[in-house]
Specification:
- The protein is α/β, with parallel strands linked by helices and 405 residues long.
- The chain has a domain of 197 residues: Rossmann fold (3-Layer(aba) Sandwich).
- The protein is 41% helix and 20% strand.
- It is built from 14 helices and 17 strands.
- It has a seven-stranded mixed beta sheet with strand order 7-6-8-9-10-14-15, with helices on both faces. A five-stranded parallel beta sheet has the order 2-1-3-4-5, with helices on both faces.
- α7 links the parallel β6 and β7.
């Protein structure tokens, strides 16, 4: 009898080894998830790394046995920095690939392009990037910052540093224009002044005229909402024009550690950024996160806020799946309310009313090594408010349910 049992074990091990019999965790039908980012075009400078962070979280969960005893299989698509392409790829992932969820997008233009797809097909997107607010959908979980978790605190902080005169520079699409509406209302309310406002197309690389206008306006600070590789051209040309952070600091909300690799830390040294996460944070979870990211992608790679939000978004979704005991979109959408996770930045939770994430707020200054010195932090998570009262008479009373105040 013992010999028979031993023979059975040997045969089973042989079948597993040769792929004829899979372990139980992989024998069940896999869970397909979509990953949708710009892997080419002007936004690839930012989005490729967010895709990498998302895939790392999936790999980590699979290494621990998967989810509900099933392997997570990512299907990666390239939005190509083109908003109609994002919509087409979202539709493909949902209708053709039958994914359980999609993780992706960076620009608000891409999010706005896919939103009708997710609402029409009643599916679920985890969106990992800070944005301009004035939106709350039951079909999107926002793991990046709302305006009161990045833009607005940074403006208040600058004003307290006696930076009263603002020059607003952004890319010409919905995020910068809406963000600047909020900033202008805030300057009026808090005693600041607008001395200039300029927008350039995504991918724009000639900033000499803009820089001359900035010189003439003599602002105390340039508030930067440029996105993509336009930032590389702007910062290099700003320095070439003899303007340093000491003369005229730039506060950015789309420049993080990964973008600094393209710009050059020596070019951007001393300038400022507002985020919820910095790679230089000393939490135990962050030390492990950074170590694992470098181990997987290379010792020269860096982590940053959107990478981290893409990473922990997968874990928040996984927690909701475990809570729901299902990957069904309706069940997960209900289960995600109030779900939390000990992320590299600290504990994050999904607000059950508006589908946004509670997060700490921080301001950093660029160092020579491409990292940030953290100058200011709320120290504890700030609850998200996607509809700032300064510019909106609306409020969210339930996911997807927006009413007048």
């Amino acid at each position: 009898m013992k010999g028979y049992r031993l023979l059975t074990i040997i045969i089973a091990m042989f079948l597993v080894f040769t792929g004829m019999l899979l372990p139980e965790s992989y024998a069940a039908e896999p869970i397909k998830v979509g990953v949708l980012h710009s892997l080419s075009g002007t936004m690839s400078i930012s989005e490729v790394a967010v895709k990498d962070g998302t895939l790392m979280a999936i790999e980590e969960i699979n290494a621990k046995g998967g989810l509900l005893g099933r392997k997570i299989v990512p299907i990666v698509e390239d939005g190509a920095s083109d908003w109609p392409t994002f919509a087409e790829k979202a539709k493909k992932l949902i209708q053709q690939d039958k994914v359980s969820v999609v993780f992706g997008c960076w620009t608000s233009a891409s999010r706005k392009a896919v939103l009708p797809v997710f609402e029409k097909l009643d599916h679920l997107l985890f969106y990992p990037v800070q944005y301009e607010g004035l939106e709350a959908s039951k079909n999107i979980v926002y793991t990046g910052a709302a305006p009161n978790q990045q833009i607005m605190p940074s403006v208040t902080w600058l004003l307290k540093q006696n930076k009263k005169k603002f020059y607003l520079l952004g890319s010409d699409y919905v995020f910068p224009r809406t963000a600047n509406l909020i900033i202008k209302a805030q300057l009026k309310a808090e005693g600041g002044a607008l001395v200039g406002e300029e927008y350039t197309p995504l991918g724009h690389t000639e900033y000499s005229t803009v820089i001359n206008k900035i010189k003439a306006a003599k602002p105390d600070v340039i508030y930067n909402t440029l996105n993509g590789d336009s930032n590389v051209a702007f910062f290099k040309q700003l320095k070439a024009a003899g303007i340093t952070a000491k003369d005229m600091p730039v506060m950015s909300v789309s420049i993080a550690e990964d973008e600094l690799r393209g710009i050059g830390a020596d070019i951007a040294e001393g300038h400022l950024a507002a985020w919820n996460y910095f790679m230089s944070m000393s939490t135990p979870e962050n030390k492990v996160f950074v170590e694992n990211y470098k181990k997987r992608y290379g010792k020269d790679r860096v982590t940053d806020d959107p990478i981290e939000a893409g990473y922990f978004g997968v874990y928040l979704w996984a927690e909701a799946v475990k809570k729901a005991k299902s990957t069904d979109v309706d069940k997960v959408r209900e289960a995600v309310k109030g779900v939390s996770f000990n992320a590299p930045e600290g504990k994050v939770s999904i607000n059950p009313v508006n589908n946004h994430t509670s997060k700490i707020v921080q301001i950093g200054k660029v160092r020579k090594d491409g990292q940030f010195d953290i100058l200011w932090s709320t120290g504890k998570p700030v609850e998200p408010e996607p509809f700032p009262a300064l510019v909106s008479d609306k409020k969210v009373v339930a996911p997807g349910n927006i009413v007048k105040r």
